[in-house]
């Protein structure tokens, strides 16, 4: 992702106020208190169940078959809670994840 394509929450502070309504600006301001809270983000490509004896036999170059197919969405967790599904992408020489679906929570 190029630097110009990245958008942080701090960019909402002043640049787009004329385009945002007053309620949206207030919500962004309310969120400022949580900007520095660290969260753990996990992207799960798939899962596999195997016996410990099989696990111990794995060596370099071993292939572990996962429960997902190529091209199938991966799960994105924040603090061990499913929040989105997405796709694996390559950004320069690194792997990344793009979110394609936000999972709505039943929590109120």
What does this structure look like?
It is a single chain. It contains two helices and four strands, in the order αβαβββ. Helix content is 15%, strand content 27%. With 108 residues, it is α+β, with helices and mostly antiparallel strands. The protein has helices at 22-31, 52-57, and strands spanning 41-44, 74-78, 81-91, 94-102. It folds into two domains: 1-37, no CATH class; 38-108, SpoA-like (Surface presentation of antigens (SPOA), Roll). The two termini are 34 Å apart. The longest helix is centred in the N-terminal third of the chain and has 10 residues, at 22-31. The protein has a four-stranded antiparallel sheet with strand order 1-2-3-4, with no helix packed on it. One of its GO terms (biological process) is chemotaxis. It is a peripheral membrane protein. Keywords: Bacterial flagellum, Cell membrane, Cell projection, Chemotaxis, Cilium, Flagellar rotation, Flagellum, Membrane. One of its GO terms (cellular component) is bacterial-type flagellum basal body. This is Flagellar motor switch protein FliN.
């Amino acid at each position: 992702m190029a630097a110009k394509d990245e958008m942080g929450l701090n960019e909402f502070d002043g640049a787009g106020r004329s385009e945002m309504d007053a309620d949206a600006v207030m919500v962004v301001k309310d969120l400022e208190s949580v900007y520095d809270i660290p969260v753990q983000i996990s992207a799960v490509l798939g899962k596999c169940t195997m016996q410990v004896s099989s696990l111990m036999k794995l060596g370099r170059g071993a292939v572990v078959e996962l429960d997902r197919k190529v091209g199938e969405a991966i799960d994105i967790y924040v603090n061990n809670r499913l929040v989105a599904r997405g796709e694996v992408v390559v950004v320069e020489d690194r792997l990344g994840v793009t979110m394609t679906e936000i999972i709505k929570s039943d929590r109120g």
